[in-house]
Structures are given as C-alpha cells and as structure tokens.
C-alpha cells in the first residue's frame, strides 16, 4: 500500500446554483482544516481526462460532493475507474437543515456558510477515518515485514 495518501475532495461545478457554491465553500473549509491530508482538483480538468488528475484520483482517497441528482463529480471520478470512498449530495444536507439555506449564488450568506460548516465537519471526520485506516494497515504491513529473531539457547 502506498504511504501518505491524500484525500481528494472534489466538488461539483454547480455553476449558477447556490448549492454548487455551498459545495465549493465546503471544500475550501475542509482544505483549511486538513491542509496536510486533503486536496482538491478542478472537476473540468478531470473530466477532460488530464493524465495528472486521473493519476491522482487513482492513487488516493476520493470524496465527491454533488449538488444535484446528476452527480457530475461522482460520475466523472467513476468514469476513470475510481469509486469514490464517499459521496455526498449537498441537497440532502440542505433538506435536513432547513435553517441553513444559502442566500444567493455569489454570497451564500450566513445560512449557506453554516451549511458549509456542517458539511465540512463531517468530511473532516471522513478524512481522519480514511487516513487512520491507512496508518493501521501500514503499521500491520510493517509488523509483518519485521524479522522475528529467536533468542539463542545456552546449551552448557
């Protein structure tokens, strides 16, 4: 297993929709909270088949955030042979948190930022779970690779 895998958090583009803005804002929050463990990438770059982007998603953990039922982020990751480790629908978070509604497209307002924080807190826990699982697997592999020495018996 490759050590020090990152978690790529990929939001939908959601251009022209407040929920898309919440998706992107959630990712920015995650990157600020977990800069050593998380990264993001441009979905359009991945969609175009950029070899560096494709390589990154195949070698690392991936969490996708989709704003609508089209699930563009998830489907584009899957198109390159990677099943996202987690996928979230932002609309479901919005429906479950009616008091946290984005105000608009350019400025999501206090409600949108509160929704973004709720989402990012969950993703931060996912990142910890994924990377802690990796540490556990790497520790077991390291233990399995150690040579077990038996003490010599004194035969007098």
Topology (SSEs and partners):
Elements: E1 7-11, H1 18-33, E2 38-39, H2 43-47, H3 51-59, E3 61-66, H4 72-79, E4 86-89, H5 90-96, H6 109-145
Parallel strand pairs: 1-2, 1-3, 3-4
Helix pairs in contact: 1-6
Give the H and E element order.
Answer: EHEHHEHEHH
- How many separate helices? 6
Corresponding CATH architecture: 3-Layer(aba) Sandwich
Secondary-structure-based class equals alpha/beta
Mind telling me the C-alpha Rg?
20 Å
Distance between the termini: 47 Å
Strand fraction band? 5-15%
Helix content: 40-55%
Kindly state the mean pLDDT as a whole number?
A: 88
Query: For this structure, what is the CATH class?
Result: Alpha Beta
Largest sheet: 4 strands, parallel
Low-confidence stretches: 148-153
Numbering strands along the chain, what is their spatial order in the largest sheet?
2-1-3-4
How many domains would you count in the coordinates? Answer: 1
**CATH topology, which one?**
Rossmann fold
Overall geometry: globular
Number of DSSP E strands: 4
Overview of the molecule:
The chain contains six helices and four strands, in the order βαβααβαβαα. With about 160 residues, it is of the alpha/beta class. It has one domain (about 5-145): Rossmann fold, CATH 3.40.50.
Brief sketch in words of this structure:
53% of the residues lie in helices and 11% in strands. With 156 residues, the protein is of the alpha/beta class. Strands 2-1-3-4 form a 4-stranded parallel sheet, sandwiched between helices.
Primary descriptors:
156 residues, alpha/beta, Rossmann fold, four-stranded parallel sheet, 6 helices, 4 strands, globular
